Amino acid sequence: ANKFGVIVLNDVDGSCQQSTPVINKGDKVALTVNATAAFGGLSTRTYVWGTVMPEQGAPGIISFTTPATYVYDVYQLQ
């Protein structure tokens, strides 16, 4: 199974393809993580953080705490 993925929401120049996932200025994407494949799963009430580092511009910071119980297979973070 894949650990990470990119879902393209807006890519005017078509540069973000499966074989060459280049994300550039103006693109909008959703980054996906298969927590089971990437980390062997995440326990409940676990603090998770990370950064997304672009070649140019400011990094994006990701930070959240996992729920007290898991009732869904997919969770959307904003």
Brief overview:
The protein has one helix at residues 35-39; strands spanning 4-10, 28-33, 47-52, 60-65. With 78 residues, the chain is mainly beta. Strand 3 and strand 4 (60-65) form a beta hairpin.
Characterize the structure shown.
With 78 residues, the protein is mainly beta. 6% of the residues lie in helices and 32% in strands. It has one domain (4-65). It has one helix at 35-39; strands at 4-10, 28-33, 47-52, 60-65. The strands form 2 sheets. The chain has a two-stranded antiparallel ribbon with strand order 1-2. The protein has a two-stranded antiparallel sheet with strand order 3-4. The longest helix is centred in the middle third of the chain and has 5 residues, at 35-39. It is elongated. The two termini are 24 Å apart. The model has no long low-confidence stretch (mean pLDDT 89).
How many domains?
1
Order of helices and strands: EEHEE
How many angstroms separate the termini? 24 Å
The tally of helices reads 1
Q: Tell me what portion of residues adopts beta-strand conformation.
A: 25-35%
Structural class: mainly beta
Characterize the largest beta sheet: strand count, sense, and whether it forms a barrel. Answer: 2 strands, antiparallel
Low-confidence stretches: none
Alpha-carbon Rg, integer: 14 Å
Averaged pLDDT, please?
Answer: 89
Widest β-sheet, arrangement of strands: 1-2
Shape: elongated
The beta-strand count equals 4
As a percent range, the share of helical residues equals under 10%
